[in-house]
Amino acid sequence: xxxxxxxxxxxxxxxxxxxxxxxxxxxxxxxxxxxxxxxxxxxxxxxxxxxxxxxxxxxxxxxxxxxxxxxxxxxxxxxxxxxxxxxxxxxxxxxxxxxxxxxxxxxxxxxxxxxxxxxxxxxxxxxxxxxxxxxxxxxxxxxxxxxxxxxxxxxxxxxxxxxxxxxxxxxxxxxxxxxxxxxxxxxxxxxxxxxxxxxxxxxxxxxxxxxxxxxxxxxxxxxxxxxxxxxxxxxxxxxxxxxxxxxxxxxxxxxxxxxxxxxxxxxxxxxxxxxxxxxxxxxxxxxxxxxxxxxxxxxxxxxxxxxxxxxxxxxxxxxxxxxxxxxxxxxxxxxxxxxxxxxxxxxxxxxxxxxxxxxxxxxxxxxxxxxxxxxxxxxxxxxxxxxxxxxxxxxxxxxxxxxxxxxxxxxxxxxxxxxxxxxxxxxxxxxxxxxxxxxxxxxxxxxxxxxxxxxxxxxxxxxxxxxxxxxx
Length: 472
Prior knowledge:
Layout: H1 17-30, H2 32-43, H3 48-55, H4 59-67, H5 69-87, H6 89-108, H7 113-141, H8 147-175, E1 183-184, E2 187-188, H9 189-195, H10 198-208, H11 215-220, H12 224-235, H13 241-254, E3 264-268, H14 272-286, H15 289-294, H16 296-302, H17 307-331, H18 337-359, H19 370-388, H20 391-401, H21 408-459
Antiparallel strand pairs: 1-2
Helix pairs in contact: 1-7, 1-8, 2-7, 2-8, 2-10, 4-21, 5-6, 5-7, 5-21, 6-7, 6-9, 6-10, 7-8, 8-9, 8-17, 12-13, 14-20, 14-21, 16-17, 17-19, 18-19, 18-20, 18-21
């Protein structure tokens, strides 16, 4: 499933003011999948230590339970496009909402560690579907003049979902007197944290009934009249509807369905440009960003921070993540993708290096010394800020623009798969690495952040201001 490649027609680039509010509502409703993506990805942060305690498991088993959701993510992302091409974008959203709901209930009420892991996979599958269907649907429904801004709703929704999950976790922990396993509503606090996701999941499902199907999908299944109605609904009544329908049909017929074979070539199996995409995806994850969202409460508690305070710091980190994302959205088209990536890499090296230094000190009475504790806390926020204002957004922009048209869809799929695998590697390895040597673990992340600088300088080409057809 690819987004519609449409050349602007007279009147096609603008939405009538009366329609713009409705278009914003449609994009925001679709972006609820992104909100759930962020929420479900990070809500587990509040349950890690409680799961370790309840099931009496070591770091290796704990890491697998936390990381296993990423298997579902990879499968959901790989299959969502094909499912959407068969049954429609809205139906996929509804399936995703149902899976989020089931996963939230199952995770909150597990019988054992093994069925808990199964519900994590189900939630991961929903995340993978949401990560694909939201941006694709918005791109297909949004008027061309507003596509970029409306498309940014997905990333904004993800970081807001992360922040809200941490705020809810913090509030529930306070209600349980700071004990993740404290009784709350007849359950343990961590179970309530995971169960609360039922609310946004049901809301996502309800909103999916209030928005129209993609005109592109409707045309692909011969429902031209309904497609015309929706095009008028989202782009206004001043466009030539027959021309727009014909334009979409022509674009669909002329699209090249890229396959894995198209990516082969060169001396190292894949074409060089595909390796650059894979490299961007791997570096984005190997700096350890998801440690900040999956394990931050555990991390702070391991160096002596009170559980309630550790949850609060997870929330403030999420707010910094939102701020950085907004900065990236403002500057990515102004100063370019490559300079922003380099700025972010330098900032991440500083933040991660300071964390590695702070964690190298021995604990005193179960806590880091005061100076090192404050340095670690500030450095963690610096790291997240510089990641969010650069690699968090820029990598996805690069991957959407850098590949030639004839291989874009397949290359993007391979790069995204590499990203999920790298995410899994970092998530699954962190607890064991932290038990081994927390300072050395952050030193490893620092090295990857440093290596990303020469990688970007040598191999990554700026895509700002270039037409997609120019990519070779």
